Amino acid sequence: xxxxxxxxxxxxxxxxxxxxxxxxxxxxxxxxxxxxxxxxxxxxxxxxxxxxxxxxxxxxxxxxxxxxxxxxxxxxxxxxxxxxxxxxxxxxxxxxxxxxxxxxxxxxxxxxxxxxxxxxxxxxxxxxxxxxxxxxxxxxxxxxxxxxxxxxxxxxxxxxxxxxxxxxxxxxxxxxxxxxxxxxxxxxxxxxxxxxxxxxxxxxxxxxxxxxxxxxxxxxxxxxxxxxxxxxxxxxxxxxxxxxxxxxxxxxx
Length: 253
Ligand code: ADP
Ligand code: MG
Hints:
By secondary structure, this protein is an alpha/beta fold. It contains ten helices and ten strands. 40% of the residues lie in helices and 25% in strands. It is globular and about 65 Å long. Adenosine-5'-diphosphate (ADP) binds next to β2 and α1.
């Protein structure tokens, strides 16, 4: 199967507001795809519907052969779909390392008996988990911050931490909601370099981002929303000259 995710006829209303309307698209495996559109066009809502943080009113969401619509977020996560949030969600009173360790343990927890008895197996697994967590911290430039409290991190590093945690879950599909927002140019460059490596490692990225320059250089496919509807989908070169897309973005400015 060339596609890892298929969305068909997705719809969501908040009261009288139709936030997502009859939305259909497919996402190609091991690529970076972008979801763009003006403020309030339904990007985060679309992510919330896919990740199980919201229930759709209508439509189908098929991920690796599983129907996700109506499944709770934890179940969706266990199937191999991870995400970050527009406002980073971390455990602020834990250290940076502990935050990532929790994600590693979500996949492989040492057995109860071996934890209780502190068997050699327990220490071996504990060590492997720390090494793995440190590996993700290094990839997101956080090795020097491992023992800081997560709550003390500036926004850029918080976004990195959220990404390190999401990757530690070893997902197949990663949804990024404005991963570069609030980052300085240098941090954006670092972020782009790491994220660009991921498709070669078997990951698929679906990325909402305001910084279109950053995104257009990385994404293979771009989906454009306006008022909850898809108005265009295609490679960046086509999207950039699509009259409807240009109009929507000019309208925003
Ligand atoms: P985007 O991420 O593209 O900026 P959103 O998906 O966050 O847009 O929002 C789409 C529309 O739905 C907006 O008008 C927003 O105010 C509204 N909206 C989003 N979430 C909720 C909610 N939980 N309750 C009510 N309205 C919401
Ligand atoms: Mg949003």
